[in-house]
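chain and backbone:
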Amino acid sequence: MKKRIFLVSFVFAFCMLLCGCGSDQALVDLPTPEITEGIRGEQFGIDKNINEETIDNYLGRSDSVYRDMRLLKDPGNYEAIGGDSYLSGFVEGFEAVPYPLIVNVTGLPSEVGETYTGKTLFTYQDGKYIANYEESMEILEYFFPKDKNIFLMCGGGGYAGMMKNMLIDLGWDKEKIYNVGGYWYYEGSHNVEVKKTNNDGSVSYDFWKVTYHDIDFDNLHEVEV
């Protein structure tokens, strides 16, 4: 009986090894982050090799985290630039950690107008990121662990690029961070739709599908100036 159990366990483990399950050795090597050509690279810093067209090949990795930088509903008018102010969908495996809650947003297209202007973990001022709370860096390191590859996404690529720049400036390894671009341009097979049209023609959003990390500023301790 013991021999039979051992044989079944051995066969199961061997099959898991063949299919690449449960073993980081089966993970394909990631290309070095490299900014793509043209406006997508110059303006947003979207990666040349891992982006909306190829991200499906790099999902579900145990050595990586996947972060969507959008709010559920952004006050900015992203419809003015062909986008969507709502988090209308996301790529499977990505968790929302809204960039506007992390640091004050600057450099948006004028057509978008103002985005969120409430409390933030950090303030970007005079080229520096200043922590507003004692817990700010701890929260940042929790959501963006330094020992993992970090895949960043948003609607069009802007928030993701800003987040990448911030992390690098604060000491994260630039070789482990990828701006994979915008959900608005994703046509892969791991799309999770949040926006839906109801039978009466109205539109609603299944936000319950989103793994959304809000920040409870009221329970944080402000840094004394």
